[in-house]
Design a protein that fits this description.
Number of strands: 13
CATH class of the largest domain: Alpha Beta
Helix content: 40-55%
CATH topology of the largest domain: Rossmann fold
Radius of gyration: 24 Å
């Protein structure tokens, strides 16, 4: 415990039970965002923090929450944490549970892709902290059991990611469900675009501002390299790198869900154990894929940007950008999955001629030219084969999906006419299920609509009936 006093955590005056958990986890020193954000958080002040993922910000809001809850009665939900993705929600909940290990504080997650029953039970029992994604939380708010009148602390994590995913209207709807009395709000965002600044002004009261210097480049421990290659040879180059042992365990990022699926299946056919995570996978599939990768049962995890932020994998050897990310910030977030906690790692990016413009923007942002590499003996002039990039097929798939949606909507309208506007029986709800079931054109949050609370009081489907995270 003396070491805790020396390394920075002793300055916060945290409860001995929390200090014991910190020691158990082996935290050696407080990070800058923790040093700046924890004291005002403990004082009950609102906090506006601009801090990148990987900066230690989760503990910066978790510790003040736990300290506050230790002195409050049980049986009522006192704290709500909003995150943009299920994976981040699960990770925040795990971090809460780890730091609360020596207390009786209870934590629950609320997100789509899993059964709503245990989540309803958590609301009814009044667990101390709920970590939720916006869409599923709003689904529960249709019902009386989801009263949150006891909320004293609200955390909005990765606010700019919420903006990117279109969740700001949902956040404003959630705010209307929270008690009108004063509460403490902790607001974290890696960047501060104008929409986020406006939202923070709406919900924060005289906040303490914490600005941790944004990373303009990946951590020093990341060795970066670009591999120029024609688009149709990317799969062959990746499998060659894997076969030669140039890549250990790796997260491989793809631009779309369909490309991630095709790449993972191709790697499996080539004999490389590969899992996949993207928005069309069920929550059970996503959880299992991440668990298998962390446990070493699979060597490759093929993913979309759904895991680019907030997901920690210890001792990750490589990040591979199969597709060049759209922006320098996305590149930094992806590459930041490796070389965490002062470790080292490699980041490889496969660059087609069409992607050179984006690559130049990345180099400008990181302030240096990144090494280009070629593999001896690889046939860079090979003819196109059954390539992964099939834009014509993708366009056809999208057209077919839209036609399927049109047919489903027509079926809904027909059912309404036959049943007096859809007020009686099940045809209307069945038609809605069919219309929403095809996710070929959906975003990464679409599969959260797969499992929703059942019972009376279901709202009418309208602008709020879309698939949500």
């Amino acid at each position: 415990m003396e070491a805790m006093k020396k390394n920075g955590f002793g300055r916060f005056g945290l409860h001995p039970k929390l200090m014991q958990a910190i020691e158990d986890l082996g935290f050696e020193s407080a990070t800058p965002v923790q040093i700046d954000a924890i004291p005002p958080g403990l004082e009950g002040r609102d906090v506006l923090a601009c801090a990148m993922t990987g900066s230690g910000k989760t503990a910066a809001f978790v510790l003040p929450i736990l300290q506050r809850l230790l002195d409050e009665p049980r049986g009522v939900t006192r704290a709500l944490v909003l995150t943009p993705t299920r994976e981040l929600a699960a990770q925040v909940a795990d971090h809460l549970a780890e730091l609360a290990i020596h207390t009786d504080i209870r934590v629950a997650t609320v997100f789509g892709g899993v059964g709503a029953g245990p989540q309803e039970k958590a609301f009814r029992k009044g667990v101390d902290v709920i970590v939720a994604t916006p869409g599923r939380l709003l689904d529960h708010f249709q019902y009386d059991y989801a009263a949150v009148s006891g909320i004293d602390v609200l955390v909005i994590d990765e606010a700019d990611r919420m903006l990117d995913m279109g969740f700001l209207p949902d956040i404003r709807r959630i705010l209307r469900h929270l008690p009108k009395r004063a509460r403490q709000t902790l607001f974290f965002s890696a960047t501060m675009p104008q929409e986020i600044v406006t939202l923070s002004r709406e919900i924060l009261r005289d906040p303490v501002r914490v600005a941790v210097e944004r990373k303009s480049a990946p951590a020093k421990g990341v060795a970066q390299a670009f591999y120029p290659v024609r688009s149709h040879l990317k799969v062959s180059l990746l499998t060659e790198l894997l076969a030669r042992g140039e890549i250990g365990n790796a997260i491989v990022f793809c631009r779309t869900k369909h490309r991630a699926d095709r790449l993972a299946k191709r790697l499996e056919r080539e004999g490389f154990a590969a899992g996949r995570i993207h928005g069309n996978r069920s929550q059970g599939q996503r959880t299992e894929a991440l668990a298998a990768f962390k446990a070493g049962r699979t060597r490759i995890l093929v993913a979309t940007d759904i895991v680019a932020r907030g997901i920690d994998v210890e001792a990750l050897d490589h990040v591979v950008n199969f597709d060049v990310p759209h922006t320098p910030d996305d590149y930094i977030h992806r590459v930041g999955r490796t070389a965490r906690a002062e470790m080292t790692g490699d980041a490889y990016t496969l660059v087609s001629p069409e992607e050179e413009g984006t690559v130049r923007a990345i180099e400008h942002a990181v302030g240096r030219r990144i090494e280009r590499r070629r593999i001896d003996g690889f046939d860079y002039d090979a003819a196109a084969e059954a390539k992964l990039e099939v834009p014509q097929r993708e366009r056809i798939a999208v057209i077919r999906a839209r036609k399927a949606d049109d047919r489903a909507r027509a079926a809904v309208n027909a059912a309404r006419r036959e049943n007096g506007g859809g007020r009686n029986g099940n045809p209307r709800s069945a038609g809605i299920s069919a219309a929403n079931g095809n996710s070929a054109t959906s975003n990464d949050s679409a599969s959260d609509a797969a499992s929703r609370p059942s019972g009376r009081g279901r709202r009418r489907r309208g602008s709020r009936g879309r698939s949500r995270r």
